[in-house]
Amino acid sequence: MAVNVRYTRYLVLALVGMTFFYLVSRTNLRIPNSASFARPVQSYNEFKANKNEYPGANSTERVNATFVTLARNSDLWDMVKSIRTVEDRFNREYNYDWVFLNDKEFDDEFKKLTTALVSGTTHYGLIPKEHWSYPEWIDEDKASEARAEMERKKIIYGGSESYRHMCRYESGFFFRHPLMMNYEYYWRVEPSIELFCDVRADPFRFMKENDKKYSFVISLYEYEATIPTLWDSVKKFMTNHPEHIAEDNAMEFISDNGGETYNKCHFWSNFEIGSLEWLRSKQYIDYFESLDQDGGFFYERWGDAPVHSIAAATMLRKDQIQFFHDIAYYHVPFTHCPNDEQTRLDLACSCKPKENFDWRDYSCTNKWFKVNHLSKPDGWD
Ligand code: GDP
Ligand code: MN
Fold first, then answer.
1. Any idea of the CA torsion for 63, 69, 70, 76, to the nearest 10 degrees?
2. Atom 10 (ligand 1) nearest CA
3. CA distance 290 to 236
4. Which of 112, 131, 231, 295 has its CA 20 to 30 A from that of 77?
5. Ligand 1 residue neighbourhood (C-beta within 6 Å)
6. Phi then psi dihedrals of residue 98, to 5 deg
7. What gap in Å lies between CA 247 and CA 328, rounded to an integer?
């Protein structure tokens, strides 16, 4: 009996010890890497050359970052596809968290399946009513008439009320949901997207090390009918807040005449890797609130893509915006596929280079290259 008691005591001690070390090692992973990095700015290619292998989830190089998805319960099966592709091409090696946000409660089936597929920790958030409803200064009858009119004109999502709440939420609120407040960077993922190449070097870490705040893979022209007064609203903001406008910004990407008019170029925001701290900054919040007051999210159909893009192109330095060549991506109906064969082989890509959208007429990426004095990469057509 005495022997038994002593034995149990050691066993308990050993278990406590093991649990302690396990927890410490887990916590290490979760501690945001807040060290400041030495900053010779690298291109993603240089960055990749040093880190062409997955450092893996045990790496202390992890950044305080999360995937984020806004979705309905009915998006479950399309979301499953997106998670699977993101995990297979990247996250199974890194185990970053994933935050799901919804204007209704997620049901158990949604939570069960997505948690099973995501290698990191999953979080499910309900959007507060104030962030998904009409602000008091909006005339709801006027908004409803505007929807009817846009529906008659067959403008895409022109008649949809929920789509407008969605665009306003993505423009001004997702980054300040309580579940997002602890993270520094986000990667937005929508249902039914595809990644066609391995993402071996961690883009979050690249963003952080090189002081990037916003990124894109596809850019294009917005439908004029959805944003007739957006640029007036932006100009009003710029006049009222000259202190928020960056020197060496990317205004040339969004305006062909020094800011007089908007050329409708925008980064396609269904893919985004960006800085949450930038979106939570006074400059961005002042910008969003100024636009929101003007009512175009409801009286027109302002998309979060032009809203984010104009913010990035006016309030960031242009070298803080990153074009990720070799994150090969699909969201209906456009594909971004590296045309460079060696890249496709190295990264085990499965996309057809002929389907690359970057240099088509409707793309703005050629303009991005021009603004940045970059020449078209070899093999790109
Ligand atoms: P599109 O890409 O512009 O055609 O728009 P989507 O239908 O893909 O919507 C954009 C994002 O918002 C996706 O992640 C959707 O899952 C999400 N979304 C759209 N409408 C709603 C909605 O009413 N409620 C919620 N919770 N999510 C929505
Ligand atoms: Mn979509």
1. -160
2. 190
3. 8
4. 131
5. 69-72, 75, 102-103, 162-163, 166, 190-191, 270
6. -140, 125
7. 31
Q: Quick one: tokens of 28?
A: 């290490």
What does pTM read for this prediction?
Answer: 0.88
List the structure tokens of 364.
């703005």
Closest CA to 231 of 267, 256, 255: 255
Give residue 150's identity as a one-letter amino acid code.
M
152, 310 in Cβ contact below 8 A?
A: no
Contact criterion met (CB below 8 Å) for 196 and 328: yes
Residues acting as catalytic residues: 272
Count of beta carbons in the 10 Å neighbourhood of residue 26 = 9
Distance 235 CA to ligand 2 centre (A): 29
**Which ipTM value was assigned to this complex?**
0.99
Quick one: 96 exposed, middle or buried, by C-beta within 10 A (0-12, 13-18, 19+)?
A: buried
Q: Is the pLDDT of residue 1 over 90?
A: no
Q: How far apart are CA 364 and CA 267, in angstroms?
A: 8
